[in-house]
Amino acid sequence: MRVTNNMIVNKTKTNVNSNKVNVDRLNTQMTTQQKISKASDDPVIAMRSLRLATSLNHLNQYNDNNIPDAESWLEVTFTAMKNMNSLLSDIRTQCVNGSNDTLTPEDRNTIWKQLTALSEQVYAEGNADYAGRTVFTGYRTTSQLMYKEDEQETTYEITQKFTEDDLKTKRYYTSAAKVPDDASKTFLEDGGIDTEVNSYSRLRLAYDGINVVDDGINATEFDEPTLTFTDSTGADVTSSVGATYSYYKNETEWQNASTKKVVGDDEIVVIGNTGEVILGKNVSEKMKLYSYDASITYNKKGFKKGEVRPEYYYDCKDITEKIATNGVVDAIEYTKEDQTINYTVAANTQITINTQADQIFSTDILRDVNDMIDIIQETISAHDKVDKIESMIKSSQYADEDSQKNLKTYLEAAKKEAAYADDNLQKTYSQYITNFEGYEEKVNLAVTNLGSTQVRLKLIKTRVENQKTTVDELKTNNDDRDLSDIIIDFYQANNAYQASLTAAARVGKQTLLDYL
User: What is the pLDDT of residues 447-459, one digit of tens each?
Assistant: First the structure.
């Protein structure tokens, strides 16, 4: 085959250009210290680089954002739980003090003041938030768990469910003894009532002060609480319980209607102001014997500062606007459901970071505290009556025989009331020691679960950090070149380029005439 000068020149130019391209490529590598500058330089390296970059971005997101966010949320929750545990411990200490049968008036006043102060903080930790998001309110992280102010017009229709385990024994006292304003009156003339006590099984609602309110549609109709019983299959067995039902606004109305707060064996009594469902003997026995569940739907208008919002605990309806507009606006309906917030903290790995309100803040806590406050207040009041009557007996104004006789009758009734009050206080506080130990145990269990989550998160964080280091090294090895290696290759390529230029210069000087 004949090789022409043009062929030699063209081939030489191609070789020179190839060496020049190689020098340019190594010069770019020396500047960027990257193996390739575009995907076409090496598709395999480019594909691997994209894959590793994506993995590294995900790991950076987990390590720099998701995991720290989860850690902070859990830490806020942990602090709130520890504070709640401390509060419950303080209340239990007051229960221990109250169960003492040798309380002085100063002791009772101290317990009353302590419990009153603590009652205002029972659910305060439930409003704990992280970055403006409340941590105990499920998906509704912009809402508060506890009412921060009194809301007189806010009205809910609440459905609360009970099991046989919710049945508790409660002692009910008849009207208290009176302090006479005129010592000449006899006990019976003044309508004095000797204190008596009856014990019944009760179901306690989450709130006191339940009321019968306008249903928002017809102003002449009002909704009273409705109570139903179901068996283990969910079938309605209310009719087989065979109980008569009565609703009273308060205990005074109940006493006036039933004579000394008596509940028939087959009767159910609902007391509005105390939020109690009192079951007669036969009703409570059937509930225990057949393991019946009970469900009561009631209205609650007006919530006090410190009470919890019902939507975090029960199926309920906010009917505030419906009532205000006479049924023109639909009620806002809430269904109690599990609202877990999961964070993705690693590839295919999620953890639940939130603890829901009903898992730690039982509605019974504030109800127990308020019960204890009421009982100790009644005890203080009963002893004040004794002191007042004894003071009247010692007064010269009532030194005559008839006055002394009458006052001693009053004193006997007042002492009987005080003795009942002391006994009730001691028994109730002894019972509530167990209650608050249960609440503490519930919080401690939540703290333990939270601690386990924190430990798990810490292990995941370590794994993600190790994965990040590994992937980063793989990406570096895939994408980068060592500068010293690039310099060696560059000088080799540059020498080859210079040599190719020299060779090209010599080839260009040779023509066919040189051989003729």
Answer: 999 999 999 999 9
